[in-house]
Amino acid sequence: MNELKHLAVVMDGNRRWARKNGLLEKIGYSQGAKVVEKIIEVCMDEKIQNLTLYAFSTENWQRSKEEVEFLFKLLNKYLDESLNKFISNKVRFKAIGNLSLLDELTLKKIQNFQEQTKKYTKLCVNLAISYGSKDEIVRAVKKVIEKNLEINEVNIQANLDLSEDVDLFLRVGSAKRISNFLLWQSSYAEIYFSQTLFPALTKKEIANIIAEFKKRKRTFGK
To answer: What is the CATH number of domain 6-131+165-215?
Structure first.
């Protein structure tokens, strides 16, 4: 059976779930934040080392000012309310993306969260914020050049925001695209598309998806 070390999740469908249920779109995002806890619990049960969640893309900055402000308000609330839970469960937190675009308050909270949990190795939750894979690769290449290193796959991967390869790439919300998420790290990832809108995702479905992944034949092109 395949070993699942790194699960990547595109958390799509929050707004559609809210509209489908006759609710404000903001409630869809709030409900989606609760599902994050379920995914983390499953990852701990399955002894997964890395969980990477696509929270806010570089393209999302183009959404309305009101929506962007709400999303970052929700992020700040999550950072405030989740720190003690991460510490008690010995889970590490890491933010990836072009963090230079974030406001000072959010950035300070992220830095504090990372510092408080950096020693834990049970599970690392990587939150992709202001993240785009093409942007990440460009920034990595610039780092390699600045360090006067040879431009090759090993050095580029070592200078990415996240160097761990993805084993299972999960996209919920019915869309069948990867949306500029972990393109380098997912070069040989198994991909699973779920019709479920993110706020409706259950622990049972997550576990079933992982079980299917473990049965898949992975050849890595060999």
So the answer is: 3.40.1180.10
